[in-house]
Amino acid sequence: MARTVFIAGSGLFCARGDSPSTVRDALWAGECTAASRQLGERRFPYFPLPLAETDWLRRAEQAIRHVGGQLGNLPMDTPLFVASSSFQIGHFEQQGAPFAMPVGSASFTRQIADWLELRGPRYSFSNACVSGFSAIDAASTLIAAGLIDEALVLGVELANASTLAGFAAMELLSPNGCHPFDARRNGLVLGEAVAAVRLTAQPGPWQIVGQRNGLDGYSTTGPDPAGNPIARVMTDCLHAAGLTPADIDLVKVQAAGSPGTDLAEARALHQVFGPAMPPLLSLKPALGHTLGASGIAELAALLACIEAGQVPATAQFAEPDAEIGLAPTAHRQAADVRCTLLNLIGFGGGLASLIVARDR
Amino acid sequence: MIHLDAAFSQQFTPAELPAAVRAALGKPLRRAAVLTQLALLGAFAALPAERRSLPTALLWQSTSGPRLETLTLLAEIGGGGGEPMPYDFLATQPALAAAQIQPFLPGLQAASHVPLDNAKDANWGLLLSLAMAWLNEGRYSQVLCAQLDHRSDLGSGHWLLLSRAPGTASLARLAMAASEPSGLPDIPELPARIAHWLASPGPSRRQLESPAGRGQTVEFARL
């Protein structure tokens, strides 16, 4: 059995808004202001959730219940797939030593299921920045195989010092902003998000037509500069979908503003699409890099935009880089996007591409 | 038809682990966290050299995750103002394991880490269902499924290797089947249970208990 997998709904809470439609409107308006976080003597731009609550766990509960509420009534036995790179480490930081970490490393998923009042099976995925697509791939595979009928796939990445300090120590963070594919790019800007998609075997407007994950062992902190593994994953994903590059109306690129990773992705895009490059959109200058939640957050935001016939401009892109040789969407435009490819390139070598299409 | 080609468990004390890695690789695996070293040792034990270039996926679950490394990181950053040593941060990132072992397993094309949310249950049902689906659709030739855990006094790896093509090493067949009562519990040590069943006289088929299968579950059948 190989059933088609549809996206029945989505929920989103991030720095740009508290629902897919508010995020869509903010993206259309070009909003991209960031706050900042202090780390020792350094200060980094940051995209926090607009929540006043300061207790980490209560804040997480508010955000997760809010996103769950956007998805309508879910049967209690709906399988839950959670994607995160940091789970509740911010809670442990706030509690302080001795750190009361439960035995199960994904114990936070049990808490999320309780908040969402789900009593079905729970699965967790922690593959750095590609966690969201890992979770979608697993849920889609089980639905396609006829083993489950629907799934809630939720990505969560909330503020914590460990990730910020770790990325700072690796010198991966920009001191002044996210500039994807731009000659001025100098690092990532982190952000918070909770996002979810409801996947189902019941027909709906959007379907997942291809998904492939990959691995780039070139280095633990950056991809093969030639972009070959990234190109391979995109090509495999197109083959899995039975599509050619010409069928893609829009690519949501990873393009987080990282000097090396942006260049590798650009080279991969040149390999796959050649001179017939589709429009490219990066959402990270507006949402921040929300790590384990980024795949689901960006999918939810993107679907909201293209359902409204809108492709927003890529914020913070101004100076083309000759070595990259690509320019993301510089101006917002009305467009009928029917088939879109989304890329994720993860810290630690994870790669993922996903293609969604409508009315096939 | 999906085949089970390996079912085994490994345990290493902290003193044994580096020596085992050196014995497997002929050199140390530098700057590799314990879970990465366990992943390498299990993959090498499951895959003879001639199979290490075949298209492979690694699905691994963990109860502990990088717990000890995370506690170290938390202590290091203290009140949130400090920056950790880069390696101490990298050691908390389980996704790095696959990238670090890929140079020794050139066929490794994808990996996913599935952390567990309690000490009692495992997600072998998920890992095996995904592996079987991906093998059936031709994504990979073989899928390594593992449970890797790391305590201060012991590292453990429990492994199942699934493949699409039957080989001389095949131990059992796998298929999805209507679930029946009294299946094998979905616990971390499942591979040892499977190995024991295969080595002993007994029923020709065993099923895995599944919480999610719409009445379907993974069934192992003797060859």
Describe the structure.
The complex is a heterodimer of chains A (360) and B (223). Chain A has 360 residues and is an alpha/beta fold. Chain A has one domain (1-360): Thiolase/Chalcone synthase (Peroxisomal Thiolase, Chain A, domain 1), CATH 3.40.47. Chain A is built from 10 helices and 14 strands. Chain A has helices spanning 20-28, 56-69, 89-95, 107-115, 131-144, 161-169, 228-241, 259-273, 284-287, 294-307, and strands spanning 5-14, 35-39, 42-46, 80-83, 122-125, 150-157, 193-200, 206-215, 250-252, 280-281, 310-311, 333-334, 339-345, 350-358. Chain A has a 10-stranded mixed β-sheet with strand order 5-4-6-7-1-8-14-13-9-10, with helices on both faces. Chain A has a two-stranded antiparallel sheet with strand order 2-3. A two-stranded antiparallel sheet of chain A has the order 11-12. In chain A, α1 (20-28) packs across α10. Chain A is globular and about 55 Å long. The two termini of chain A are 19 Å apart. The mean pLDDT of chain A is 97. With 223 residues, chain B is α+β, with helices and mostly antiparallel strands. In chain B, α1 packs across α2 (34-46). In chain B, a hairpin with a 4-residue loop joins β4 and β5 (155-163). Chain B has one domain (2-171): Thiolase/Chalcone synthase (Peroxisomal Thiolase, Chain A, domain 1). Chain B has helices spanning 16-25, 34-46, 67-77, 86-90, 96-101, 124-136, 190-199; strands spanning 2-12, 56-62, 108-115, 142-150, 155-163, 172-178, 205-207, 216-222. An 8-stranded mixed β-sheet of chain B has the order 3-2-4-5-1-6-8-7, with helices on both faces. The model of chain B has no long low-confidence stretch (mean pLDDT 94). Chain B contains 7 helices and 8 strands, in the order βααβαααβαβββαββ. The interface between A and B is large, with 64 and 58 residues.
